[in-house]
Amino acid sequence: MSLNNNNGESPANFEIDRRKEALGDLSVLPDEILCCFILTNLTPRDVARLSCVSSILYILCNEEPLWMSLCLKIVNRQLEYKGSWKNTALHQLDLPCANNEVSKKALCFSGFNSLFLYRRLYRCYTTLSGFSFDKGNVDRRENLSLKDFSRDYDGQKPVLINGLADNWPARKLWTSEQLLLKYSDTKFRMSQRTSKKVIMKFKDYMSYVQIQHDEDPLYIFDDKFGEAAPDLLKDYSVPHLFQEDYFDVLDINQRPAYRWLIIGPERSGASWHVDPALTSAWNTLLCGRKRWALYPPGRVPLGVTVHVNEEDGDVNIESPTSLQWWLDFYPLLADDDKPIECTQLPGETIYVPSGWWHCVLNLETTIAVTQNFVNSKNFEYVCLDMAPGYRHKGVCRAGLLALDEGFEDIEKNIQSMENNPSYFDITRKEKRVRICQSIEDTDYENGTNGMSTSQGLDNLEYSYDIDFLAMFLDKERDHYSSLWSSGNCIGEREMRDWLWKLWVGRPELRDLIWKGACLALNAGKWCERMREICAFHGFPSPLHDETLPVGTGSNPVYLVAENVIKVFAEGGLEASLYCLGTELEFHNLLHTLDSPLKNYIPTVVASGILLYEKGSYRVLPWDGSSIPVGIDSSNFISMMHKEVEYPFGVWGKKQFEYEKAGRPSYESEISGKSSLIWPYIVTKRCRGKIYAELRDTLSSEDTLNLASFLGEQLRNLHLLPVPHPSHDILRRMVQENKIQLSYGNGFSDNSAEKIDNLAEWKLFVSILNRKRKDVTHRLKEWGDPIPTKLIKKVDEYIPNDLTIFAEIFENEAEVCKPCTWIHSDVMDDNIYMAPCCSSPSSAGNTSDPSVAEGTCEKRSISGQKRSWSPSHILDFSDLSIADPILDLIPIYLDIFRGEPVLLKHFLDSYKLPFVRKESLKQSVKDNRFGRFSYRAMCYCILHDDNILGAIFSLWKELRIAESWEEVEEKVWGDLNNYSDLC
Question: Name one GO molecular function term (predicted).
Fold first, then answer.
């Protein structure tokens, strides 16, 4: 297809401008807008139809880069390149490809030219044989010692090192030809600029490489190559300069992505970016040549836009392709504004320090391996980047240009943060930091930015220094009560687990770990609060090794001497009060009824409220049976709180759950941000270890005993009577619209009559229906590994009105109570195991929680077998009233990891019916509701936590499931076979 007229005349000689007639009102838009922002957001079918409208739309709608973008958005299976991206897209849609397009005569149109299309076409076909930058200004070193590297480069500036890979088998084995021989059918992950994961067989990818003419070609960028091709891991080793990696305390399946196989053709590469979590990286080239450009931290390259989300601090970067940047932006730079550059040759390793911007362009087909790491030089930066908030993240990457106000204002704000918890401006949702000007006086040696040219900040120095950057943390935006950035390389639980494992496993690093924990967890403030609680109750002062919170939960927990101190912070003050109030009400009920469950729950030593007033702390004891002093004037206190024995007990908590259901998550985070009041509880410390630490070492007999133990204790829990509010309070709740069953989506308040006046079901179903309204949106936000095709079918699977679940129990209230106390969080870190000793011939559970570990270890020397028995269930702060089936979800998925044998042992010990079969037959018209598996699956989908992520991670084969019924049968199908359930 030609853009010239039939006579070969240049565009300047055209007499007729075809654009207006062919595009109509769209002619006012530049071609870039039409191609990059309009056509790319259409479906392939719509683009194909639009191409028939006019000659110019035919040209625009048949452009290869457009079809590449369209194709990558619809990829739903392994990719096979079919000679053009249009044909490849049609193949993905199972549509017939165009017939013999190559033999067709090229279409020519006069009266139209496009500089945008010409430039894009040029970039697609240009060659880079003479593009090497031989006069690089990155230091080149050989035989570099660890001492010299640490002194001169680590955490400071890039360096090219030769000789680190000389003894690797990969130096000889990693060529296109040899890899093709051995890994022809191996599937690798591709890089792409869409949310879709693109996978190709290596032989298909190499075929694509040979014939493609893309501006930004796909290239292999696979962090799972060690799983796809384990032998590749034997072909290289981490160079001695980079072996210190603090992430290595995590299991391979826990640590964030850190190593990648990189294979790409000419013109491919990585556009401008800063490595995740401000980690450092090394990259060793085995084949081909790469051109590198680098800028120090805070100096954003020309043409790059940094987006900072002010809700969770997530940072997104918009950048041209690496080839486009070098062709279109690089020539515009003055000599003083040009980046540090070099051309990497085979056998060379480049080191990229924390926070450095870098861009890579493959000058020919290249093969490389790279790893990111955390060491003593960048540990604090990594912790800082994990911390909640937005300001510090923007400053780390964009320097002072990320700030809206002058430095004097910033200093005042920073100084007032400790006394002004509402400093965070909730009215601003997103910041854009667009960098289009140069920054002068860059100190390449120290990796710092000199002077910013941003208005109002002319005379201020930006330093990539941890103390300087930490000033921009929002100190009151605490780790435990704030939104976690979706862009963080690990989640909150993983972060806490990582720091704790470092704390325990690397005691020589505790000073450094403490500094990082203060940045990421606000550990110093929480330790100060914990000390106040200890002092008030006369507990021993915490030792140095007791100052870091333990566990992975969303509230800080401390092990101090014989006690466990838990400070409630998650969800803000009101949520925290309900968590503690419910737990205290529950403990009182246990002891009043003398339930056997009380022997397996840690004893409560103390509880109360910690307040921060006028620069000092004050502690007030509280047993949950009244409204705490200091809270009684709060705006969330109602008349109902004053009329019940436990104002923040489980019934009030259910109302709070209803009010919170459907509310945007950031609203609850903001509401808790200004709290200077923290409820707390102190319990007796258990001896032994949590199940999460022992999981892989337990015998099958111990694991079966655990399943039976959980069944027995959950039975004791679910048999406890549920407190009810008075009829007057219930009537007032309905009158004040605290409970509603009508949301304008097809069901009415009349359905409430079918719940047989069971107050707990009224609330439970109301909460489910609120969650039902935005279920598709939530699943889309969670994304991978939940299959997209199932997300589209979720509305068909879940009924519009969840009241149908209540109808199952109609007229059965006295026979089988449908709603019970539920723990709702029985996971592997909430089960304590005590050591016990038994001879090989002994059978059954021989646990004795009083046996000390040391005694057991001594006995094991004399030939006895060491084993572990469950002793306690922990953390009842998530207590609620709901369908008991909900307690099966964390137990089966997290503790049992989907093992049916363990679930059967649990149910055999549980021995309680969930519902009688007669009620199912009589009440349910749709046979789906007669399946326990269906109810369990619906609860998984509607759960507040990403339960589906766990399901599709445990059963990877379900990622290609065609229906929710298929997932339901695989995960929960066995529930329907257990007669004891009915």
Answer: metal ion binding
Domain boundaries defined on the chain: 11-125, 139-309+318-375, 568-684, 689-719+831-873, 727-824+879-981
Name the percent of the chain in helix, strand, coil, to the closest 5: 45, 15, 40
Q: Could you give the angle at the alpha carbon of 10 between the alpha carbons of 7 and 13, nearest 5°?
A: 90
Q: Return the DSSP state at 611.
A: E
Partners of 836 in the β-ladder: 867
Chain segment 194-252, per-residue pLDDT in tens: 667 899 999 999 999 999 999 999 999 999 999 999 999 999 999 999 999 999 999 88
- Rounded to the nearest 5 degrees, what angle is found at the Cα of 812, between the Cα atoms of 806 and 815? 135
Sorted by sequence, the CB contacts under 8 Å of residue 625 that are 6+ apart come out as 584, 588, 645, 646
**Length of the chain in terms of residues written:** 982
A 10 A CB-CB count for 960 gives 11
pLDDT at residue 10 in the model:
45
Phi, psi of 693 (to 5 degrees): -80, -20
Q: Do 743 and 773 meet the contact criterion of CB atoms below 8 Å apart?
A: yes
The strand pair at 689-690 and 340-344 is best described as unpaired
Task: Compute the distance between CA of residue 34 and CA of residue 26 in angstroms, rounded to an integer.
Answer: 8
Distances (CA, A) of 479 to 467, 471, 491, 523, 526: 19, 16, 12, 9, 10
Residues 762-814: pLDDT tens digits? Answer: 778 888 888 888 899 889 888 888 998 899 999 999 988 887 776 655 544 44
- Residues 6 or more apart whose Cβ sits within 8 Å of residue 165: 171, 236, 239, 284, 286, 347, 349
- What b/e sequence results for 305-325 when a residue is b if at least 16 CB atoms lie within 10 Å of its CB, and e otherwise? ebebbbbbbbbebebbbbbbb
Give residue 808's pLDDT.
Answer: 56
Distance of CA 570 to the CA centre of its chain: 18
Distance CA 266, CA 363 (A): 5
Distance CA(691)–CA(827), nearest Å, equals 9
Instruction: Extract the residue ranges of the chain whose pLDDT is less than 70.
Output: 1-15, 97-107, 192-195, 404-460, 633, 639-640, 642-643, 662-674, 725-760, 806-818, 837-865, 914-926, 979-982
Prediction pTM value? 0.85
Whether the Cβ atoms of residue 194 and residue 76 lie closer than 8 Å to each other: no
Report the sign of the C-alpha dihedral through residues 537, 542, 548, 553, in that order.
negative
Tokens 């015998």 belong to: 699
To 10 degrees, what angle do helices 932-942 and 964-972 make?
110
User: Measured on CA atoms in the order 244, 247, 248, 253, is the torsion positive or negative?
Assistant: negative
- Burial of 982: CB neighbours in 10 Å, binned 0-12, 13-18, 19+: middle
pLDDT score at 752: 39
**For residue 476, what pLDDT is reported?**
73
Predicted pLDDT of residue 39: 94
DSSP-derived letter for residue 35 is I
| Torsion on CA atoms 220, 221, 223, 229, rounded to nearest 10 | 20
Match 């009415």 to its residue by tokens: 748
Contacts 24+ apart (CB under 8 A), 955-959: 955/898, 956/785, 958/787, 959/785, 959/787
Tokens at 160, concatenated: 């090219």
CATH 3.40.50.150 holds for 139-309+318-375: no
Q: Tell me whether strands 430-435 and 159-162 are parallel, antiparallel or unpaired.
A: unpaired
How many whole angstroms separate alpha carbon 958 and alpha carbon 786? 9
User: What SS3 state is found at 737?
Assistant: coil
Report residue 390: phi and psi, to 5°: -120, -35
951 SS3 class: helix
Dist CA 104 CA 110 (whole Å)? 19
Does residue 567 contact residue 556 with C-beta atoms inside 8 Å?
yes
pLDDT of residue 154: 97
Please give the structure tokens belonging to residue 146: 């660890």
Q: Ramachandran region of residue 363, left (φ > 0), alpha (ψ -120 to 50) or beta?
A: alpha
